[in-house]
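Quick question, first post here. What does this chain look like in 3D?
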Amino acid sequence: MLYNISVLVINYSFRLSFDRGRVC
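> Answer (accepted):
Ran it through. C-alpha cells below.
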C-alpha cells in the first residue's frame, strides 16, 4: 500500500516538473 502511494507521488511530482519544464 505505502509502496503504491509513494509511486503515485513520485509520478505526480515528476509529471509536475516535466510540465513546468515544458512551459518554461
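The chain has a mean pLDDT of 85.
DSSP finds one helix and no strands in the chain.
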